[in-house]
Amino acid sequence: MSKPIIILSIESSCDDTAxxxxxxxxxxxxxxxxxxxxxxxxxxxxxLASRAHQQNIIPVVDNAVKKAGIxxxxxxxxxxxxxxxxxxxLLVGTSFAKSFAMGxxxxxxxxxxxxxxxxxxxxxxxxxxxxxxxxxxTPAFPFLCLTVSGGHTQIVLVKDYFDMSVIGETIDDAxxxxxxxxxxxxxxxxxxxxxIDKYAKLGNAKRFKFTKPHIEGLNFSxxxxxxxFMNFINTEVSKNPNFVTENLNDIxxxxxxxxxxxxxxxxxxxxxxxxxxxxxxxxxxxANSQLRSTLYxxxxxxxxxxxxxxxxxCTDNAAMIAITGYFKYLQNDFTTQATTPLARYAL
Length: 347
Hints:
By secondary structure, the protein is an alpha/beta fold. The chain has helices spanning 46-68, 87-104, 113-119, 175-185, 193-200, 223-239, 243-274, 289-302, 319-330; strands spanning 6-11, 17-23, 26-33, 77-83, 108-112, 143-148, 153-160, 163-169, 278-282, 305-307. A hairpin with a 5-residue loop joins strand 1 and strand 2 (17-23).
């Protein structure tokens, strides 16, 4: 009987310290430590993030090993996020992964964070019958993946696990950043994206109209929308100081619908041009309830087959790094102790 392949993964690209363990492609543990310290600053403070990673990484890894019910001597390889992300945060995860791999004398696997988001669709349930993770229906190659987060907005053509090409991306700001900036303009606490989603459910998305950019091809732009939204709020507040409070639900619904319309318009063009009907989403913004429901609506209207990851795998997590590391392990795709993190790391 062959020895099982057990991958320990580390994710530390931004403000969440995460570790996961996959055994023969099945998820055994997925542990995340969040950093609440950033709420008071209205956004992630890189120096504070890296310090928190240093405090969290050993307890998180230890928790993952214990939850998976394995011995660290059984680990086949260590996978880690090399980038893109905050350099200080990446340094903590990379350094720990390299040291742990050296101590265990096992291979080291570098993972592109955005590739991990795409391959989150291939995370399988644990062999543990008590697992709460549902069975996963995975997309067939080729498929299109709309990856939307605070730092990235891309349409990725996925031909295989490691054959991906970006066919459309933002030329300035990301969709997630537009959500958070809009929330900040309305004085909503950080992170504002989930709050906009929450209030939008109670609002009228047709109440307010915001300008949509006209960008050629499959690329996106959100900087103009952010500026237009800020000017709109400032103008209305100058006339009525209570404007945001009195119209919060409708404002949130309207700005959210505008962002989703921008995303969907490009995705529909990409699907038409490539003649691909297997459509997936990934990244933190893919947790947005309106985006998810809109995609399911498109599934019926355009005969798409839509794939949306479980909420646990939308935001940054180590399970997506582990499954990517597992596929790389099968191809003997390892890196060396000379590897350094990359704040910018093209897919």
